[in-house]
Amino acid sequence: MASEGGDRVELLQGTLDLIVLRALTTMGPQHAYALADCLERVAEPSLRLNQGTLYPALVRLEQKGWIKGAWQRTAHGREAKYYAITKAGVLGLEKETERWRRLSGLVEKLLLGESP
Amino acid sequence: MSRVRRMVLRLWNALRPGRGDADLAREIAAHLALSEEEFARRGLPPDAARLAARRALGGVEQAKALHRAARSFAFVDNARRDAWHAIRTLRHSPGFTSMAVLTLALGIGANTAIFSLVYSALLRPLPYASADRILSLLEGADGNAVTFGNFGSWRERSHEFEALGALFSTAATLSHDDETSRLTAFRATADMWKVLELPPAAGRYYTANDDRPGAAPVVVLSYHLWQSQFDGDPNVVGSSVLLDGAPRLVVGVAARGYEEAGLSADLWLPAAFGPSLLAEHGDHELSVYGLVRRGSTLAVATAELRRIEGQLKDEFPQAGLDGVVQTVDLRQSIVGDSRQNLLMLSAAVAFVLLIACANIMNLLLARAAARQKEMAVRAALGASRGRILAQLLMESLVLALGGGACGVAIAFAGFRVFVSAASTSLVTLHPALNGIVLGYAAALALACSVLFGLAPAWRAARTCVQATLRDAGTRGSRISEAARNSLVVIEVALAVMLLAGAGLLIRSAIALDQVPLGFETSARATMRVALPGARYGDPSRVTVTFTRILEGASALPGVEAAALVSRLPLARGTNCSVVVEGQTMDGGPVANFRAATPAYFSIMGLSLRAGRRFGPADVAGAPLVAIVNDTLERALFGNTSALGRHVAICPNLTTGQPHWLEVVGVVSSMRSNGVRNDRPSEIFMPMAQSSGNLTMSLVVRGSAPLAGLTPAIRRLVHDIDPFVSVYGAQTLDEFVATDRMASQFIMELLVALGVTGLILAMVGVYGVIAYFVSQRAHEIGVRVAIGASTGRIVALVLRQGCGLAVVGVGLGTIGALAGSTVLESFLFGVTARDPLTFVSVGLVLTVVALAASGLPARRAARVDPVAALKS
């Protein structure tokens, strides 16, 4: 889990949940591999996550009732568990996004204020 | 909302471990398959694609662990697994486990049983809504009950009280369903319901209108009587019951809370104090409770009563008042002496539990030494110190909870003993195994598991992995031995303190037994005979009926002599001041007053010092006479004779001139107030001249056994008047024994606890010495090989045990000497530092320790030097 390179970003607690929620809203229901693949493609090379770390995030969101998983067949006939965002999840995403904006805005402001 | 949802699901998952694992494995397998397919599509050969997919996913087991941590609570999961592991481990050593659980069960059981009493007596909140404004009131510097007259004056003159209620205990005969039963009753003023306010279980309480002389007779049933005699039938309210031969209207059922708070009588009757009773300022009979007015304070209210009492002292100089009013905490007034007893028992059971814990800690230390290898292997395989500590503590917890559960069972059994010994005044309240008591047992088990488990677990978790695995880990055993030795010393010291306390109480009991009572008890029986007040308004009728009963009883086969007395020795009753004609009328010495028939003195074996006993001529209308005992004679007349002098009992100004009685006899004194007290002054009047008592004790001397005598007397009484009740039949020996029983019961409990402590300490010594021998097998082998005799080897081991015992006895004796003064109020005829007790306890402990070392010593003597040196 520990990042090795200096230019790699380590995810803040809870941001992975936000990213997963956001990905599910834009892409529609996805299985874990597709989500991981998508994240890697978007973020490469600054963020490399073990795909396995996705699972705790998924279970957290599912327990909150924000996403719901169901076993389905892929286009190629393989079985996979597809996660879809729920109504509560949409609301949760709005709230979390707002929170994230406030937090990052605050951090940004502080960083700007401190640099000469 | 989502957070709550998640918390609930996590908890739910924590309780169903492994439930999500299969689904996750399937998901990860699917993930890998998809990933592998993608890599293969990009052109990697199958093997390389599989590897790449795995690499991208990261550690599968790690992912599973993270998933598990996110979906449930890891510590719950760990605890659950540790618990199962602990149970399996403990099952593998049944000897150790049963020993530890049994030891703990004794300790926790004893503590739980005593705590249930402590809780109901001292801790449970009183049920009354305004308990903080209630005062329990006593008169006089020595804390007497209150006189009828003074209560009346307080009620009239005080302004700081919302209500002042009074009650006294009495008895009544209930005729119900063709059966008569003798019941206890409170006669209470109507205001008592306002002071101690609890809503009735059914119907209503009686009011001031019911509580006046001449009012239609009503009764309030107690909750338990309503349940047991009337099956909780609500229709009993409004019906009529036959009490003492007269019908009474049942107006309601009292709240159950009164019984739980210690006010337990079968019936509540209106006090209905008439003017003659309210003019009585010398007879202290009433328990008085006051509800202080809102806006006033307890101090102001008490000060007001003291002022009134001062006025009463001046107004009634012969009533023997000293102008003092005392207030007692409401709980204290109900619990009384039990408080001290309970605290003493609590201390004793705490000692037993501490000894038990020390014992288990010893066993665990030995176990930890034996399991060093196991712990080292765990540590080498990656278990953190915290995890090993947690796992070992879990073992202690499982032991403690097992012990706690068995302990609660023991407490439950112990309960039966308490209840069957209910006459001991230790259980005036109703103890129960409620949630709080069970919670206490659980908390105790938890505390014990930490107390005895932490140190051994800490030591085991700190095991040096390398040294232990190389099998060089013997350095720690020295420390462990020192720890175990000190534990045994502590155990012995605690046992000494416990036994010293028990020993002092035994010596007191023996001393009490040897105190001469001053009267005869063997081959004598007694029972109470009560005339129903409603039918005996005329004093001459009272005398006639009692005389007929006495004549009938005297004529029964096997009866040599019979007498009636208003109050047996050791029984509660009227105490009055006695004044001499021609001397000052201000408060003479207080004497026990008794009305008796002529044969009473010879039956009780009192010797006549001067004058005569009562005779057949001492009847109503004849000159009034009295007999005093020599204690009263000395108090009134010094060295001159009392014969021919005139005295008055409870002289009451409101009735005008006192009735002067001529002293016609002087008899020997006896311990009428109990064996612990000095012989009190006593004055007797012939029953025929003092017919105010409707309840008398019949005393019979003869060979007739009680079982045959009681029904014969019942039949006889029934023929004279079917409404007269006969109850409380006992031999005089039994009657006297109840006086000693309370202290005896506590003493027996303490002795049982002391013996338990002794046995536990013995087991502790045995364990340590046995361990000592097994550790020194090699050394002993060498000694034998170079020529040490069996005697020397045995002496070596015994010296070890003896050393521990002597240090423990020394420390324990110091502790007991320092602590035994708290027992002083329980002791009789022996000082708190009685040398005989302390020396014998020390000897007993030393001998027991030697005996416990004997078995290991024999084993040491049989050590085969060849085998020992080879190993």
Structural features:
heterodimer, A: alpha+beta, Arc Repressor Mutant, subunit A, 3-stranded antiparallel sheet, 55% helix, disordered N terminus, B: 871 residues, alpha+beta, 5 domains, 6-stranded mixed β-barrel, 6-stranded mixed beta barrel, 28 helices, elongated
Notes on the structure:
The complex is a heterodimer of chains A (116) and B (871). Chain A is of the alpha+beta class and 116 residues long. Chain A has one domain: Orthogonal Bundle (Arc Repressor Mutant, subunit A). Chain A has helices spanning 15-27, 32-43, 54-64, 87-114; strands at residues 30-31, 67-73, 79-85. In chain A, a hairpin with a 5-residue loop joins strand 2 and strand 3 (79-85). Chain A is globular. Chain A starts with 14 loop residues before the first helix and ends with a helix. Chain B is an alpha+beta fold. Chain B has 5 domains: 2-72, no CATH class; 73-127 and 338-473, no CATH class; 141-323, no CATH class; 490-515 and 738-871, no CATH class; 532-723, no CATH class. In chain B, helix 6 (94-123) crosses helix 17 (435-461) and helix 19 runs antiparallel to helix 24. Residues 422-429 of chain B have low confidence and may be disordered. At the A-B interface, helix 2, helix 3 and strand 3 of A face helix 1, helix 2 and helix 4 of B.
Secondary structure layout:
The complex is a heterodimer of chains A (116) and B (871).
Chain A: H1 15-27, E1 30-31, H2 32-43, H3 54-64, E2 67-73, E3 79-85, H4 87-114
Antiparallel strand pairs in A: 1-3, 2-3
Chain B: H1 2-15, H2 21-41, H3 46-57, H4 60-71, H5 74-92, H6 94-123, E1 134-139, E2 146-147, H7 148-157, E3 161-176, E4 179-188, H8 192-195, E5 202-203, E6 218-221, H9 223-230, E7 240-243, E8 246-253, H10 257-260, E9 267-270, H11 275-278, E10 284-292, H12 298-315, E11 325-328, H13 330-335, H14 338-370, H15 372-380, H16 385-420, H17 435-461, H18 465-469, H19 476-514, E12 524-530, H20 539-554, E13 559-565, E14 575-580, E15 590-596, H21 600-604, E16 608-611, E17 625-629, H22 630-637, E18 646-649, E19 661-667, E20 682-686, E21 695-702, H23 706-720, E22 725-731, H24 732-775, H25 777-785, H26 790-819, H27 835-861, H28 865-870
Parallel strand pairs in B: 4-9, 6-8, 15-20, 17-19
Antiparallel strand pairs in B: 1-10, 1-11, 2-10, 3-4, 3-7, 3-10, 5-8, 6-9, 7-8, 12-21, 12-22, 13-21, 14-15, 14-18, 16-19, 17-20, 18-19
Helix pairs in contact in B: 2-3, 2-4, 5-16, 6-14, 6-16, 6-17, 7-12, 14-17, 14-19, 14-24, 16-17, 19-24, 19-26, 19-27, 20-23, 24-26, 24-27, 26-27
